[in-house]
């Protein structure tokens, strides 16, 4: 197949899927179009053209959300939905000590270095999430194979068919009730590997306020930046 050149604002992902889908990437508002292998460039561009009103509406929503965003102040980190002042101590570990009562983090992290922030959130996720996951699994009778934590571009979490759980380190920026919901969501997939009625009934039985968490993820969660 000859190389297909699409406009620079459009990213095409060819996958083994049955239909074409669209999403708007939060970071740069780029159009991400996932299409089946056999779909032509002409068909793809026609699909995007037909969905132009939806695309513009999504971009407007993102701009409105950004205008409401509370920006991270220098020398601070957003952790579990709250702003913490960072006391930089060179000989401290990067993981540091988190004082929730006084909202202070004592760490060697340079808060103005994006890679160091990403590394810090990954370390916190690996420290905080496994005990919570095990606690929820035990409480609600779920069984899983293993846990992995990494930086993901679009998903908060996922569950493999073998029961392996995967979580995005970025979830450490979200409030506690959202973290608990994301854990329950993926644990529920170990029993109900779909998003049908039985799945959501299971989620609600374990996390009654899941709709509140879902609303947060659809709004504030879309513009959180590490």
Mean pLDDT: 89
CATH architecture of the largest domain: 2-Layer Sandwich
The helix content, as a percent range, equals 25-40%
- Oligomeric state of this protein: single chain
Number of strands: 10
Instruction: Enumerate how many helices there are, as a single number.
Output: 6
Number of domains: 2
Could you name the CATH homologous superfamily of the largest domain? Answer: Metalloproteases ("zincins"), catalytic domain
Cα-based radius of gyration, to the nearest Å: 20 Å
Largest sheet, if any?
Answer: 4 strands, mixed
Q: What low-confidence regions span 5 or more consecutive residues with pLDDT below 50?
A: none
What is the global morphology? globular
Strand content: 15-25%
Distance between the termini: 39 Å
* Broad structural category: alpha/beta
SSE succession: EEEHHEEEEHEEEHHH
Brief characterization of the structure:
The chain has 226 residues and is an alpha/beta fold.
């Amino acid at each position: 197949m000859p190389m297909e050149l699409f406009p620079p604002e459009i990213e095409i992902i060819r996958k083994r899927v049955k239909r074409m889908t669209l999403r708007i990437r939060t970071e740069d508002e780029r159009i991400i179009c996932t299409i089946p292998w056999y779909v032509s460039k002409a068909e793809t561009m026609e699909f995007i053209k037909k969905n132009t009103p939806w695309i513009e509406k999504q971009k407007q929503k993102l701009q409105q959300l950004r205008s409401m965003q509370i920006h991270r102040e220098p020398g601070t980190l957003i952790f579990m939905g709250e702003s913490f002042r960072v006391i930089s101590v060179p000989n401290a570990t990067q993981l540091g000590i988190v004082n929730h009562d006084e909202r202070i983090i004592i760490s060697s992290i340079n808060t103005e270095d994006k890679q160091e922030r990403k590394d810090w959130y990954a370390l916190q996720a690996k420290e905080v999430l496994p005990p919570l996951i095990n606690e929820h699994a035990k409480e609600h009778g779920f069984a899983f194979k293993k846990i992995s934590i990494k930086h993901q571009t679009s998903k908060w979490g996922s569950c493999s068919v073998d029961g392996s759980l995967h979580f995005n380190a970025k979830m450490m920026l979200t409030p506690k009730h959202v973290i608990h919901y994301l854990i329950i969501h993926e644990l529920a997939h170990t029993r109900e590997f779909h998003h049908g009625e039985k799945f959501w009934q299971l989620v609600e039985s374990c996390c009654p306020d899941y709709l509140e968490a879902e609303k947060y993820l659809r709004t504030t969660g879309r513009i959180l930046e590490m």
